[in-house]
Amino acid sequence: MLVTAPPFQMLVSIGKIRYNIQVMIQGGSMSIISIDNLIFDYNRIGDDGVEVKQRAIDGVSLELEAGSFVAIVGQNGSGKSTLAKCLNGLLVPTGGTIKVYGMDNRDDERIWDIRSKVAMVFQNPDNQIVNSIVEDDVAFGPENIGVEPSEIRIKVDEALKKVGMYDLRNKGAHMLSGGQKQRVAIAGAVAMRPDCIIFDEPTAMLDPKGRKQVMEIINELHEQGITVILITHFMQEAAEADRIIVMQDGKIMSDSNPAELFGNPR
Ligand SMILES: Nc1ncnc2c1ncn2[C@@H]1O[C@H](COP(=O)(O)OP(=O)(O)O)[C@@H](O)[C@H]1O
Ligand SMILES: [Mg+2]
Predict the structure, then answer these.
(1) Among 219, 222, 229, 235, which has the highest number of CB atoms less than 10 A from its own CB?
(2) What is the pTM for the complete model shown?
């Protein structure tokens, strides 16, 4: 049975700013991200040179619970990456609302708070490495949000250890394998100490070994309490989540768990 309590107010400090947020408890867990009737249109130039609207997200509503491991699957073009980019404020919704701990992600003043709570790891590690030395790359995020240098050192070391890249911290990023680069990208996200990490097909460009290591890290981060949203093409990866959302044509087709979706309890 799902026990639903009425929403209540809670005071939260992020950085130096305090927020009075609304918390919703459903079945004993807290909602970290609330999406209500999200719409996203891309404007693109059609064959005739006229601008046309391409609806990529078409009325998605979701509650994502703190500490959960959610997989998002669906065919190419179903809107998964667009949804992910809306979640951490890289794209501004055309309609509907996204709230992270009650903060509306259309609020420019809160976008950095949202990005430090909801980090993102993309498919191609080469596009995410911004500094040539591993540890400098991991420090980039915390530096950008103005973390004290002594704190940065601690966060970077901790993040590199978590992904098993501490011994290679002084290496040039270009020397690394694809899997190692992706682990550095994950360390970059972890160094922000986010509550939630969205992984958009993080293993798609990796060999089986790199894929396995990245999945192990994702599972460990989840066990340590990080909310994981994993967009993936691989059903065996989705099967590790506790909730699987199937998208099609910008809509949610199904929202269930591995046993329900695949039929055989693990
Ligand atoms: N930058 C863009 N400009 C125009 N259309 C886009 C852009 N990015 C994605 N789309 C379109 O939006 C839809 C959803 O794409 P996307 O979110 O990338 O799906 P997925 O990640 O599931 O493959 C597709 O129809 C795609 O062609
Ligand atoms: Mg995609």
Answers:
(1) 229
(2) 0.88
Q: State whether the beta carbon of 74 lies less than 6 angstroms from ligand 1.
A: yes
Measured CA to CA, the distance from residue 64 to residue 233 in angstroms comes to 20
- Taking the CA of residue 44 as reference, the ligand 1 atom at the shortest distance is 4
Question: Minimum-distance ligand to the CA of 83?
Answer: 1
Q: Which ligand is nearest to the CA of 80?
A: 1
Average pLDDT over residues 203-217: 95
73 vs 231: CA distance, rounded Å: 6
pLDDT in tens, 86-125: 998 889 999 999 999 899 988 888 888 888 899 999 999 8
- Taking only the tens place, the pLDDT of each residue in 67-94 is 999 999 999 999 999 999 999 888 999 9
Mutate to test the pocket of ligand 1, among 82, 200, 229 (most ligand atoms within 8 A of CB): 82
For residues 184 and 17, give the distance between their C-alpha atoms in angstroms, rounded to a whole number.
30
Q: How many CA atoms lie within 13 A of 128 on its CB side?
A: 26
The closest-lying atom of ligand 1 relative to the alpha carbon of residue 231 is: 21
What domains can be seen in the chain, in order of their start residue? 4-121+194-262 (3.40.50.300)
